[in-house]
User: Fold this.
Amino acid sequence: MAYDPQLRASDEDRDRTAALLREHHALGRLTAEEFSDRLDKAFAAKTVGELDELLRDLPSIDLFRLPDNKLTRQPRQARVQPHHGSAGWRAVWGSYLTVNLICLVVWAIAGFGYPWWLWVAGPWGAVIAGTYLSVGPGRAGHRELGSGRAPHQLPGGQDSRDR
Assistant:
C-alpha cells in the first residue's frame, strides 16, 4: 500500500509520534516549549501527514536500537554457593534454633507433657540439614537452589558456554 498523508491517524500512530518527540526532547533537539506544542498537536492530529509534519525537521531515530558495542555484557560467571559460615546459613540456622527454643520453653511451661515440639524441630531440621549438606562448598556440577538447572545452563536448556 502506498503512503498517503491523508490517511486517518490511529491512537497507536499518535502514541508512536509522542514517544519520538519525547526522545528528541530528551536528547536536546527540542526545547520544552517546542516539545509541549508538538505534543499537543500530535494528540490532536487527524491524519498521518499531520504527524509526519511534526517530525519533518528531526532526524529519524530507532527507539528500539541495540546498545553500542561498548555496552555489551560480559558472560556471567557461575554463582558460587555460599559457604557454610556465610550470613545466609547463619540466618537459617539462627531462625531454626530460635523457633525451636520458643517451642521448648512453651513445652516446659505447659508441664513437660508430650514432646510435640519435636514435630517442629525434626522435619524442619532434616530439610535444613539436607540442603546444608547437598550444597556444600566445592561440589562440582551442583545445581543452584530453586533454578532447576546448572549454573552454566540457559533457561531453554542451551549451554551458555556454547555462545
User: Anything to note?
Assistant: Residues 82-137 form one domain. The two ends are 41 Å apart (CA to CA).
